[in-house]
Amino acid sequence: MSIHLYLARRAVLTIPLIIGITLVAFLIANALPADPVSVFLPQSAQNKPEIVEAFRREWGLDKPLPEQYLTWLGNLLRGNMGISIKTRRPIAEDMRQFLPATIELATASIVFGLIIGIGSGVASAVWRGSFVDYVARTVALIGVSFPVFVLALLGLLIFHVQLGWVAGHGRLDVTLDNPPTVTGMLTVDSMLAGEWDTFANAVSHLILPSLVLGSYTTGLIARITRSSLLEELGADYIRTARAKGLNERVVILRHGMSNALIPVVTIIGLSYGSLLAGAVLTESIFAWPGIGRYAFLASTSQDFPAIMGVSMVIALIYVGVNFVVDILYFFIDPRIRAT
Amino acid sequence: MIQKYRLILLLLVLAVFGLLIGGISTAQEEKVLVVGYVESVDSMDPARAYSFTPFTIFRAAYQTLVWFPPDGLTPLQPDLATSWETSEDGMTYTFHLRDDVVFSNGDSLTADDVVFSFTRFKNVHGNGSFLADSIGSVEAVDDYTVQINMSAPDPALLNKLVFGGMSVVNADIIRAAGGTDAADAETTDAAEQFFYSGSAGSGPYILEHYEKDVEMVLVRNENYWGEAPYFDRVIFTNIPEASARKLALESGDIDIATGITPDQIAPIEDTPGLSVFQAASLDMHYLAMNRNPDKGGPLSDPLVEQAVRYALDYEGLRLLNSPSAITPPSMIPVGFFAAFTPDQGIKRDLDRARELLTEAGYPDGFEVDMVYWSTTNQGVNFDTNAQKIQADLAEVGITLNLEPSSFDGWIERYRAGDFAITMAIWGPDWVDPSNYLSFVPAVGDSVTVANRVSWTEANADPEILELRDAAAVEPNSDLRAEDYAGIQTYWQEKGPWAPFLQPAQQIAYRDDILGPVMHPFWGLVDVRLLSRAE
Prior knowledge:
The complex is a heterodimer. By secondary structure, chain A is mostly helical.
């Protein structure tokens, strides 16, 4: 199968998926018991039928649900996600403020997760049963099983308050100004603007929350890498490679790892999505103004346009990331190319 | 090949560390105060806002006609007004303004600005506009004299003028931003967005920058007409978690941490360089029970409500919060004019509670949901209090299912009266027992907190209505105190409220911060009064 055909097939498959997501997001938000009129309009206006009627007309709430859904879908296609009750701003604007912070955090987490997780996983597998293996497995177990808020507070106490190695809450020191907004990711924007002090500060603020947020993923990647590589290393083709007299590094990295990576890539794709959506605790403790906390506040304040908007955005990122993972499969798994 | 990669990796690591170290040292000439707080913004527009965060900003960026003494509640002091007089019938207040006040843009502050601000506040119909209910109209007598014509006598007017909504804004700027004080301002005023990006007041600071959920930055108003404040810049940085605020204070990232929880007091005081300031709060924490049988169920019965009052472990609730907390004997905070003293409060009596439940027809108790705002507010953890109340009521057979909610979710249901029982908090809007007439049935078509529990003239005893009417207009202090005593006794026996806590409020700060760090009114951080030891 050619790459083009493979990509086209994958892309077509995402279309019904996205339509399904919009439907679910809409239905979940509308299943909330709250009447948007009582959420949106001030007390004094709710007693005035003419204002309530005008409001319902303006938002299409006087229409049947299927028609409301199509209206919302139409607005969505034009890039209009509606207005948030909580922040009193267009949801698209909220997303522009809060999403980059979370993407930056989740990306840093996944990068740390890959480096530490694959590194320690490979070390554990290669030196199976050694001291290195035990240390790596213990660290992975802590990452998988320790509650995020404990890690977050301990991390802040040790590495920020006592040792002063990394910065504390927020994305930048309070005395620093944000760099000019391009991507909304402060590390990237500060680099683009050549503000290196700001960049260093942003990185320093990013290290601890991303390690904490990525702790579970890191542990997971380490464990999957270890077991997957161990399985491969016991396979016949590895014995053959060794028998040919190949360098051990080549045997492990080129032969063993290329096969062991397939399940790891799957995990990364799924984890990235859950990092984006599941950062509520980390974002709260580190005062990180991201989309996880935004989604949490939206859902607990019956901010239904924001719930629909944020669900859509997270779901689309999920779809996007898994699309990329599918492409990666194409390159690392020759069986796909063969079918 | 491998060697080359190693070299590149090493260089990268060194580069990152170099940047980190380089980034730490930035010379700081400016005097900066950093406050760690929990953002709660409903609006940044004085005419619309009714929450803690915007009030703190208003106090720094705007002025009101009168204001409290720096660390107390009485007597009210001149602020924009130098003096004032009241007509004999109480229907007209005349205020004489300072003639040397300028706004942050250099414009003079005149009576027209006061008229515009007050009228806009009244007509926008924001959450706090009930404070202007007794104001009929506001007019400028001359450039520096303002007359308020009352629609009804209101002995508490001066105490209402300190409220954030009564902040005087620069009328020219707000008009240019789409603001209006016209009668239909509720639908035609378009100036709200302006207040998210700046301020237009005469206070010592201006709002330079507001980033939702991140920070608010105040900078010195260079045109300030009075004595300049100490700090050039004040940064309010949003740190939602109390434990993270404490760590930020320990590390020196912030100078002041608001909303410190009682269990954090001892560890903070044990840390060299940090202190905690504690003072009695005027906040009233209470249970509200719905008189509407469809919503309240068993709790709509005054006997059951009385059983709930006898079932609460007041001392346990008080100590759970802070040894400096007070158990309020009624809905009027201890220390207010005519308020009951703590020894006049209800004592826990489980047998009495069970008797009352049996008398009401619930000998085996019942099950009910309690929605509440899940938060830590001014150091009081609502979840812990709710769990304690759940345990207390379980002892008399009442099973309370807790329904924690966000502020918006809770206030929505509370305002709509959509609950059986809820846990709520009332911070006084003005410092007079008349504020607590909100907890008796409303007059005619007006709306008070009592409407939320469906306690109205339609279902209320004539006794409480008579007390209400007498207390509202009684000019004689002794007789007024008697009326309020009657109301408080009535609440204790037959009211739908169970007040259980008047907490201590505490704020933590670095020792080099000088000045009153917290004002008793709403626990406000009045940044204009603070400085740093040098």
